[in-house]
Write a structure and sequence with these properties.
heterodimer, A: 307 residues, alpha/beta, Rossmann fold, 4-stranded parallel beta sheet, 41% helix, elongated, B: 347 residues, mainly alpha, ABC transporter involved in vitamin B12 uptake, BtuC, 74% helix
Chain lengths: 307, 347
């Protein structure tokens, strides 16, 4: 029951898009060749986008999208990825683009027939539109369903819907299994550290949604905050006395030891019981296929800590 | 009083403003000690502090964790806020006096740009937090030293204005380097911005220990030069005719103010507004004599930053606001109010 719910939720957006695509194409033209699903209409953060034919030159300006492209077996179509795309290792050997300093001319020179972005901070969308380069804006979702439906979108847009569907069913099944297995650790409290200045993430964020599914209690939810990424005060964290501390900033030199050395933190349950857990910041900061690995890692760390 | 007739006897200064600012400081410190998201018993918090005074032993009745919250988090943070606020305010007052420029602040000669470059370099090189403070400190001193060196190139007839312009050039150059480094390492941008916005939230006794010696030296030298600054306020030529060497006084005062400001910036990041607004509030309320201005700025700056930090960490329960946002958001309207009401009185 739960399994099908999760999968159906994720599929709903994409299926709507497929139907739209069928309706649009069947009216003016003859029946398209059954071998090619194109043209397709896919859902993006900027609304539906039509892709006329299977893209052969894909540029990914998002580390998450890069992981998704390889995961749905569209890796052969990739011509360039951004500097932060470091997984899988094949991505390292593609042409590299600095997406933090977006240069439309640099992208156009690669002659892409599809660009995927996670952010539109610097007028990327406007520039690509002006150059008539098709693009998908796939920003951070608010929950796991959103991430899985992006996987399906990437699969549909690149002509790999079948493998995307297989992947998403497998991931959804594993999420359900992890959620069931997490029953004994429900109610365990934690602090998720985004950076050394004690920014965190509430359950309204994507990463917070992962913890929430495991039934863990997020101390950042108790903070009055405008957005899902509040900056906590050290006093609040020590007072809340979380059972676990997860370090999403472990890639930036924060360690179990450096947390224990912070003034006053040596009284926190997570520090006393040795339950300060470094996370792979790359996975924790993305919403790709490896998010389920992160979820499993968190559950295993909590289970080990409770023993 | 006209510029030509300096007082031969020193008029007695009224203790009122200093007493008032000290009372405000005590209230701000007490508020910072007893208020916080953890809801520690206020009386227990006070007893916990008394317990740490040598030869005093009292039972605060706090749990180990509450005691850590008070003594490891609240007290070092309030001490640091006081030290940083006092240092920035007194340095700002001294800069304004020595350059006879109401817009001068401790960051005028490149302290902020130099410290920002040092801190960004440390963050980009992935150094530990404890290594970032010395780099910021070194960067600040290098920037001001460069500004001084540049001004000297202009020839012997260097004035305060030459030095200010040299500072502008050096600050722009250092900021360009800092921005370049930051742009080349965009993955560390959040840490760099956190540092630039100013932080007291993750500090402890070690930052206090770093700041105390520099702040103390800076305060003593500046207070000792309060009468020189009164003379400088009249004009550099007038000061020369009275037998003072304005260039030497400027060097000593700027060095002392820079030392304090650089040390403050290196442990707390760039906290805007304190160095410029506190001295002006004191001037408007207590007069422009540096004999009053410097000590009252010390106490007033400490009280101002303590109150701003109290707001920063309590307005969103459990969360934090950047201290620099609070100092300007609260300080600017407050200053505008003083300015408006005082002008009426003067007119």
């Amino acid at each position: 029951m739960r399994k099908s719910t999760l999968l159906l939720l994720a599929l709903s957006l994409v299926l709507v898009s497929c139907r739209a695509s069928a309706a649009e194409t069947s009216a003016p033209t003859t029946v398209p060749a059954p071998a090619s699903p194109f043209p397709v209409v896919v859902a993006t953060d900027l609304g539906p986008v039509t892709i006329d034919s299977s893209p052969a030159r894909v540029v990914s300006l998002s580390a998450t999208a890069t992981e998704m492209l390889y995961a749905v077996e569209a890796g052969d179509q990739i011509v360039a990825t951004d500097l932060t795309s470091n997984f899988p290792s094949e991505a390292e050997s593609t042409t590299k683009i600095d997406s933090f300093n977006f240069n439309a001319e640099e992208v156009a020179a690669l002659n892409p027939d599809l660009v995927i972005l996670a952010f539109d901070f610097q007028g990327e969308g406007e520039a690509l539109t002006a150059l008539s380069i098709p693009f998908l804006l796939l920003g951070p979702p608010i929950d796991l369903e959103g991430a899985l439906s992006q996987l399906l979108t990437v699969g549909l847009a690149t002509g790999h819907l079948n493998s995307a569907e297989n992947l998403v069913s497998a991931l959804a099944a594993e999420v359900d299994a992890l959620t069931t297995a997490a029953a004994p650790v429900r109610g365990v409290t934690f602090f998720h550290e985004v950076d050394e200045t004690l920014y965190s993430a509430t359950s309204a964020s994507f990463i917070g949604n992962i913890y929430q599914r495991l039934g863990l209690v997020n101390i950042a939810d108790g903070v009055e905050s405008v957005g899902p990424y509040p900056q906590l005060s050290a006093e609040y964290i020590v007072d809340q006395d979380p059972d676990f501390i997860f370090l999403a900033d472990a890639n930036f030199g924060v360690t179990t030891e450096s947390v224990a050395d912070r003034p006053g933190w040596d009284t926190v349950a997570a520090v006393v019981d040795g339950n300060v857990v470094p996370l792979d910041g790359d996975i924790a900061g993305r919403w790709g296929p490896r998010t389920v690995d992160l979820m499993r890692g968190i559950l295993e760390a909590v289970e080990a800590g409770m023993r | 009083m006209s510029a030509a007739t300096l007082p031969l006897t020193r008029p007695r200064t009224r203790p009122g403003p200093l007493v008032f600012s000290l009372v405000l400081l005590v209230i701000a410190a007490a508020g910072s000690l007893v208020l916080g998201p953890a809801g520690v018993d206020p009386w227990g918090a006070i007893l916990e502090v008394l317990d740490h005074i040598p030869l005093v032993s009292v039972d605060s009745g706090l749990s180990e964790q509450e005691a850590a919250i008070v003594w490891e988090l609240r007290v070092p943070r309030l001490v640091l806020a006081g030290l940083v606020g006092a240092t920035l305010a007194v340095s700002g007052a001294a800069y304004q006096g020595v350059f006879r420029n109401p817009l001068a602040d401790p960051y005028l000669l490149g302290v902020a740009a130099g410290a920002g470059l040092g801190a960004t370099a440390g963050i980009v090189l992935d150094l530990s937090t404890s290594a970032i403070a010395p780099l910021a400190f070194a960067g600040a001193l290098v920037a001001v030293f460069a500004a001084y060196g540049l001004a000297r190139l202009g020839g012997p007839r260097r004035t305060g204005a030459t030095l200010i312009l040299s500072g502008v050039a050096v600050a722009a150059f250092f900021t360009a380097l800092q921005t370049y480094l930051q742009q080349q390492h965009a993955d560390t941008i959040r840490q760099v911005f956190s540092w630039i916005l100013g932080r007291l939230g993750t500090t402890g006794w070690s930052e206090v220990a770093i700041l105390v010696p520099y702040a103390a030296v800076s305060w003593v030298i500046l207070i000792a030069h309060r009468r020189h600054l009164d003379v400088m306020a009249v004009g550099e030529e007038e000061a020369s005719t009275l037998g003072m060497d304005p260039a030497r006084v400027r060097l000593v005062v700027v060095s002392a103010a820079t030392l304090g400001a650089a040390a403050a910036v290196s442990v707390s990041g760039l906290i805007a507004f304190v160095g410029i607004i506190v001295p002006h509030i004191v001037r408007l309320a207590a007069g422009a004599s540096y004999r009053v201005l410097l000590p009252v700025s010390l106490a007033g700056g400490a009280a101002f930053l303590l109150l701003a930090d109290l707001i920063a960490r309590t307005v969103q329960s459990g969360g934090e606001l950047p201290i620099g946002v609070v100092t300007a958001f609260v300080g600017a309207p407050f200053f505008a109010f003083i300015l408006a009401t005082r002008r009426e009185v003067a007119a």
